[in-house]
C-alpha cells in the first residue's frame, strides 16, 4: 500500500506568487523509513505540513493513507492527522506542567480512535523502549533535552499511528543524544513498522534509513 503520493504538487503561501513546493511526483510506500534532507529554505517543513494536512496544496494531488488531502476540509484533515499520524516536532511542544506519562498519553485524551487502542499499556511499553521508566512521573521540565525529545517521540507513537512525521527532531541534541535517540527510534520502528518520514539537514543520519531523498533534487521551487 502507498502511504504518500504527490503528483504535480504545488504550494505557495497566500498573497505570494513564489512557489515553495513544486514536486512532479513523490511516492512513499507503507512501512518505509525515509530520510528527507536538504539545506534550509528548500521547503522541508512545508512539505511535511502538506503531508500532515496542516497546509493544503495550491494545486495537484496529495494522497496520504488512501485519502486525497486536497479534497478534504480542514476539519477532516485534522481528524485524519489526529487519528493516524504522529508528529515529532523540532521544538518538542511538550506541556511543561504535565508529567512524562501525562504528556505521552495526551493524544489519546484528545482523539477517541487513538484512545481505543489500550493506550495506558502502550505508554508503559514506550517508556521502557525509550529509556524513560525512572522518569515517568516527573515533570518534563525536570528532564534533560535528550530525555524531553524521547518523551516527544513517545507522544507521537502512542495509539499506534500508521505514520510518523519527524521534523528535524535531533537539531537541538548533541552527538551522543542524537545517536541514542536514533537508535531508540529505530528499535521502536523495527517492532511497529510504521511509515517513518524523517527530515533533517544532517546527512550523517542517512545510514539509519532504507531510503534517502534529496529535497532540492525533487522540489523545483522558485
TrEMBL record:
One GO MF annotation is:
ATP binding
Keyword Transport (UniProt): yes
InterPro entries, per database record: AAA+_ATPase, ABC_transporter-like_ATP-bd, ABC_transpr_LolD-like, MacB-like_ATP-bd, P-loop_NTPase
Q: Which Pfam families match?
A: ABC_tran
Q: What keywords does the record list, in alphabetical order?
A: ATP-binding, Nucleotide-binding, Transport
Instruction: Spell out the GO cellular component terms annotated for this protein, sorted alphabetically and separated by semicolons.
Output: plasma membrane
Keyword set includes Cytoplasm = no
**PANTHER family membership:** ATP-BINDING COMPONENT OF ABC TRANSPORTER-RELATED (PTHR24220:SF611), IMPORT ATP-BINDING PROTEIN (PTHR24220)
Q: What is this protein called?
A: Methionine ABC transporter ATP-binding protein
Q: Which organism is it from?
A: Bacteriovorax stolpii (Bdellovibrio stolpii)
Q: What is the lineage of its organism?
A: Bacteria, Pseudomonadati, Bdellovibrionota, Bacteriovoracia, Bacteriovoracales
Amino acid at each position: 500500500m502507498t502511504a504518500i503520493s504527490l503528483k504535480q504538487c504545488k504550494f505557495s503561501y497566500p498573497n505570494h506568487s513564489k512557489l515553495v513546493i513544486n514536486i512532479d511526483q513523490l511516492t512513499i510506500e507503507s512501512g518505509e523509513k525515509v530520510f528527507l534532507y536538504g539545506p534550509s529554505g528548500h521547503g522541508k517543513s512545508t512539505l511535511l505540513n502538506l503531508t500532515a494536512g496542516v497546509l493544503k496544496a495550491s494545486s495537484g494531488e496529495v494522497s496520504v493513507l488512501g485519502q486525497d488531502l486536497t479534497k478534504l476540509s480542514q476539519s477532516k484533515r485534522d481528524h485524519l492527522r489526529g487519528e493516524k499520524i504522529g508528529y515529532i516536532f523540532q521544538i518538542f511542544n511538550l506541556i511543561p506542567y504535565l508529567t512524562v506519562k501525562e504528556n505521552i498519553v495526551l493524544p489519546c485524551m484528545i482523539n477517541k480512535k487513538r484512545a481505543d487502542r489500550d493506550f495506558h499499556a502502550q505508554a508503559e511499553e514506550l517508556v521502557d523502549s525509550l529509556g524513560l521508566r525512572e522518569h515517568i512521573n516527573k515533570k518534563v521540565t525536570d528532564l534533560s533535552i535528550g530525555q524531553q525529545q524521547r518523551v516527544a517521540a513517545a507522544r507521537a507513537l502512542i495509539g499506534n499511528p500508521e505514520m510518523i512525521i519527524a521534523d528535524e527532531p535531533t537539531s537541538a541534541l548533541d552527538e551522543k543524544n542524537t545517536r541514542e535517540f536514533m537508535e531508540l527510534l529505530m528499535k521502536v520502528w523495527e517492532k511497529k513498522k510504521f511509515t517513518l518520514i524523517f527530515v533533517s539537514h544532517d546527512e550523517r543520519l542517512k545510514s539509519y534509513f532504507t531510503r534517502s531523498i534529496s529535497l532540492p533534487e525533487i522540489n523545483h521551487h522558485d
